[in-house]
Write a structure and sequence with these properties.
By secondary structure, this protein is α+β, with helices and mostly antiparallel strands. Helix content is 26%, strand content 24%. The protein contains 16 helices and 31 strands. The strands form eight sheets. It has a seven-stranded mixed beta sheet with strand order 13-14-11-21-18-19-20, sandwiched between helices. A six-stranded mixed beta sheet has the order 16-24-23-22-17-31. Strand 26 and strand 27 form a beta hairpin. Helix 2 (96-108) packs parallel to helix 3, helix 12 packs parallel to helix 16 and helix 15 packs across helix 16 (690-702).
């Protein structure tokens, strides 16, 4: 989300947020803590909803839902001293379960091991817009600190009442309250026993500054990490409720195809198999996946297809069909571009393109659905459990309170698991069968029917003075999105604009959104401008920057990389790039080598400096940064979706190239811990400077400037190769 004047707006490239469900059917609170028992608790009141729940009025699935009134909506201190925190955020590999537990333990002054988190369960946790946009750390860590601080106040007041002393003289530490004057102490468990004490969350409550953290800020190992690496953890695909059936869905032969005829004569006699047609939806449920697929194979279905363009016509289509008029919030201008260009010693116009790419998660979409007494429960790997609940309720004409969505800790999604596709499919089949049904998408389904990172065309017009100062900057993005579109560099005359384009392929969020495309175009263009005035790439950026946080990451990356480096072999090159988004800053240096004969590009080394304010868990942050750098290799070098006539042509890992072990270079992540700045998220920004740094290094090695992502899907082919 972007924050403009204190309001949250959904980025335009999150196309999946406003898209209709992929299935259209023809079908004509809560009770949190009875199971938890008595104790000390903190809850939020409804008027706090806007501040703590990231709701966005007027947007589907971002409604103002009244926060639960139960006493332990956010935190519960049990009679045994156990601490339970509640959040609607989902654990999808980014390690927020550990980070949020650290936050509560730190502020409540209890051992980390005593805290457990209940996450992403629409029946138990407060409403949340979803786990996306690097919002968990900046929104949930301060929220849970306020919650824990309020709980600590309740405990101190309870002890003061017990001893008949003033609360101000008491201290809370090590899960107990102590009276320094008398030496007496009471454990939190003792203070909670037999009580149902509760408090509304104060609008403002002092929290511990980062400089005084004792548990947060440390590299605590991942919660349940052993379960994940040993296979004990159960993902959605591992769940098997009693009497469960397996579901399969009949897919159209191409995008936009409509079902014109349907016969299932041969499937009616198969015992234990249920075949459903509901509108355009056709699916089967059976005791095994093989039987469910066999039932679909026996169905006689005919489809009407529509002509569609291929990836070869993609960029011309995007440019020709871009909206001429855009919303004001996607158009920024100051000064005069014409004057800036007229006063420039050097002008440079260039076009950059970005292909569609797939999320390619190791864990494909999956859901288990179960109906009981007119109510629906779905277990699924999603980043937006409450939005999934709303979509399920709408699809089956149910009250929201009759639908429960539970998210087991899920494999990484990279922005690709916002929609409820598999959940709706499993629920429809379970309704027909009267038994639980599990649907797991195949790899081909994941590559074909999930949404993609939007493709885009970016056009830049620019001018610089003879001393290297920017005089004009005009930047237009067609289709891929507006995230990271504004330049961080100082330029008096500038215009940036995002142009919407009708969708070709199903598109939506991807790690970093359009900031990756926009950073690629901008940072490659900056390198070309540096060459025009014969300036070092780092010096040119520093000359045009006033943001000290950006300067800091640039200088930290350059120092660790040893910039400027001397070449030690032929066709070796070095590149640098930087950027900022979602409240965090990044700079990346790359070393590449290019084989003269084959044109193969090998990334030999990446050094990245990253700053996101105060660091909550250094190990978790380092994993996020390094993971983003490795993932960024794919989009930079070779990932691209190929399509023709509504069909995906490379729908499996054997012909869709993702980074492999042999592609991973020497990697160094330099983390800047700014305890004087509030923590920001780290899931997205670290990927953004990888592609331009590599592109600039390729130019340094070969003299060939590559303006398209991916840059070298088949190796570098040019006259200089």
């Amino acid at each position: 989300m972007n924050n403009v004047e204190g309001k949250f707006f959904i980025e335009p490239e999150r196309y999946e947020f406003t898209a209709a469900s992929i299935h259209q059917f023809e079908l004509a609170r809560r009770d949190f803590f009875k199971v938890l028992g008595a104790g000390i608790a903190v809850f939020a009141i409804a008027k706090d909803a806007m501040a703590v729940q990231e709701s966005a009025p007027g947007h589907r699935s971002f409604h103002n839902e009244e926060l639960p009134k139960d006493i332990s909506a956010w935190l519960h201190v049990g009679e045994d001293g156990s601490i339970t925190g509640f959040t609607g955020k989902a654990e999808i590999g980014q390690n927020i379960r550990t980070e949020l537990a650290q936050t509560i333990a730190d502020e409540l002054r209890v051992p980390f091991e005593s805290v457990r988190m209940v996450m992403a369960d629409t029946a138990l946790t407060p409403f949340d817009a979803g786990t996306f946009g690097s919002r968990t750390t900046p929104t949930m860590t301060p929220q849970l600190r306020r919650v824990a601080a309020a709980a600590r106040d309740i405990l101190v007041e309870a002890a003061a009442k017990e001893w008949n002393v003033a609360p101000a003289g008491l201290t809370a530490a090590n899960a107990k309250v102590t009276d320094p004057a008398s030496g007496r102490s009471l454990k939190y468990a003792e203070l909670a026993r037999g009580k149902t004490l509760a408090q509304n969350l104060p609008l403002e409550d002092p929290i511990t500054p980062a400089t005084e953290w004792t548990i947060a800020g440390k590299a605590i190992p991942k919660v349940d990490g052993r379960a994940f690496v040993t296979g004990r953890h159960q993902y959605t695909t591992d769940l098997r409720p009693a009497d469960m059936l397996y579901g399969k869905v009949l897919r159209p032969p191409s995008f936009g195809a409509t079902l014109t005829s349907f016969r299932q004569d041969e499937t009616k006699a198969i015992p234990g198999v249920f075949v459903v047609r509901d509108g355009e939806f056709v699916g089967a449920a059976a005791p095994t996946e093989r039987e469910a697929q066999a039932a679909l194979d026996a169905v006689k279905a005919e489809w009407k297809e529509i002509p569609q363009i291929s990836n070869k016509e993609l960029f011309a289509y995007l440019k020709q069909n871009g909206a001429a008029k855009t919303e004001d919030r996607f158009h920024r201008q100051k000064g005069s571009i014409e004057e800036g260009l007229a006063n420039a010693a050097h002008r440079l116009d260039a076009t950059y393109t970005v292909a569609y790419i797939a999320h390619a998660p190791l864990e494909p979409r999956a859901a288990v659905a179960q109906w009981a007494d007119g109510k629906l429960t779905v277990w699924t790997g999603t980043q937006r459990p409450f939005a999934n609940r709303d979509e399920l309720a709408a699809a089956f004409h149910l009250p929201e309170g009759s639908v429960r969505v539970i998210v087991p800790d899920t494999g990484s999604a990279y922005g690709g698991k916002h929609t409820s596709d598999a959940a709706i499919e499993a629920a429809r089949l379970a309704r027909a069968a009267g038994r639980p049904v599990k649907v797991v998408w195949t790899r081909e389904e994941e590559f074909t029917w999930a949404y993609f990172r939007p493709a885009g065309v970016i056009e830049i017009k620019s001018g610089i003075a003879s001393d290297g100062a920017l005089t004009a900057w005009e930047f237009h993005n067609y289709h891929s999105g507006a995230s990271g579109i504004e330049t961080p560099y100082v330029v008096a005359n500038q215009r940036t604009e995002y142009h919407a384009v009708p969708l070709i392929l199903r598109s939506g969020s991807y790690r970093g959104l359009a900031a990756t495309a926009n950073h690629f175009a901008r940072e490659v263009h900056m390198d070309v401008l540096a060459s025009a005035v014969k300036m070092d790439s780092l010096d040119f950026r520093r000359k045009n920057l006033s943001d000290e946080r950006m300067r800091a990451v640039l200088e930290a990356a350059a120092k660790s990389f040893g910039w400027p480096r001397r070449k030690t072999q032929e066709r070796q090159g070095f590149g640098i790039a930087c950027g900022a988004e979602k409240g965090s800053y990044v700079a990346t240096c790359a070393e590449v080598s290019v084989d003269r004969g084959s044109g193969a590009v090998r990334v030999a080394r990446l050094v990245e400096a990253f700053e996101c304010g105060a660091i909550v868990n250094p190990d978790g942050l380092r994993n996020q940064v390094v993971g983003a750098m490795i993932q960024g290799l794919g989009g930079a070098l070779f990932e691209a979706i190929e399509f023709e006539n509504g069909r995906i042509k490379n729908s499996r890992f054997s012909n869709y190239r993702v980074p492999r072990f042999r592609d991973v270079p020497e990697i160094e992540a330099v983390l800047l811990d700014r305890k004087d700045i509030p923590s920001a998220g780290a899931g997205e920004t670290p990927i953004m400077a990888v592609a331009p740094a590599i592109g600039n290094a390729i130019f340094d090695a070969t003299g060939v400037r590559l303006n398209n992502l991916p840059m070298v899907p088949n190796g570098l082919r040019s006259p200089s190769s």
